[in-house]
């Protein structure tokens, strides 16, 4: 049996979140991060654990953590102080592997440490959107400079080379029948592992729009930033301006001015292949 070495990354920042309260569950605001809820208690329970926007993926060199603007973010011994109102958008020094644990904590400017929180690296080798019968082209995201092989019911049915930031597409000779299963095998001379996507079952065709952006945090009349999770490299339009998602699907909007409570906003999105996605409408709430 092959033994896979697991990497552990230590992420540290400080306290004093300024982005407004975070809401999940019935609010409809989604936290997309894959995480392990194990938290190690410390003597100072009043310091919050880190909040990860989106996912840590095995295809991404980027990650976004939310913390205080006066803190230092430490990743694998490297310090990061550049942030926008507590949003630390960092470049990872190397690719992570599927299932790796990422241990995070806050360290205040006075050296006080929070509890630790463990995040787990998710699979970023994807076919987007989900495969439906009648589709004549498949596309998605993997690591850049990789050979992508499409497996239909376990048999090779096409290949492509990932370009740009890891985008790929394969044009099919004929539509894949309903009920078949497809997945990706990803290889490259730049890394030794053979990577695989999840298995996708071909679904009935639909006229519904692909999934659009999702809010990470509640937007209040005191928010200076808005974070969305979305399809990697998609383009979002909000308040007449266009913003791009990174390789983990994070879109960071820095507002020019505070918004009034009760203001209704609509975010529209086009994915990296030109597909119009489902728009997101939300309302600015009053700060507590």
Topology:
Layout lengths: L7 E6 L21 E6 L10 E3 L8 E5 L6 E3 L2 E3 L6 E5 L9 E6 L9 E5 L5 E2 L9 E5 L5 E6 L2 E7 L5 E5 L9 E8 L2 E6 L3 E2 L12 E2 L9 E5 L5 E4 L2 E4 L5 E5 L9 E7 L9 E4 L5
Parallel strand pairs: 1-8
Antiparallel strand pairs: 1-5, 2-9, 3-4, 4-7, 5-6, 8-9, 10-11, 11-14, 12-13, 12-15, 15-16, 15-17, 18-19, 19-22, 20-21, 20-23, 23-24
Protein described:
With 288 residues, this protein is an all-beta fold. It is 0% helix and 40% strand. It is built from no helices and 24 strands. The strands form six sheets. A six-stranded mixed β-sheet has the order 2-9-8-1-5-6, with no helix packed on it. Strands 12, 13, 15, 16 and 17 form a five-stranded antiparallel β-sheet that branches. Strands 21-20-23-24 form a four-stranded antiparallel β-sheet, with no helix packed on it. β5 and β6 (78-80) form a beta hairpin.
Brief write-up:
The chain is 0% helix and 40% strand. The model is unreliable at 1-35 and 40-45 (pLDDT under 50). The chain has strands at residues 8-13, 35-40, 51-53, 62-66, 73-75, 78-80, 87-91, 101-106, 116-120, 126-127, 137-141, 147-152, 155-161, 167-171, 181-188, 191-196, 200-201, 214-215, 225-229, 235-238, 241-244, 250-254, 264-270, 280-283.
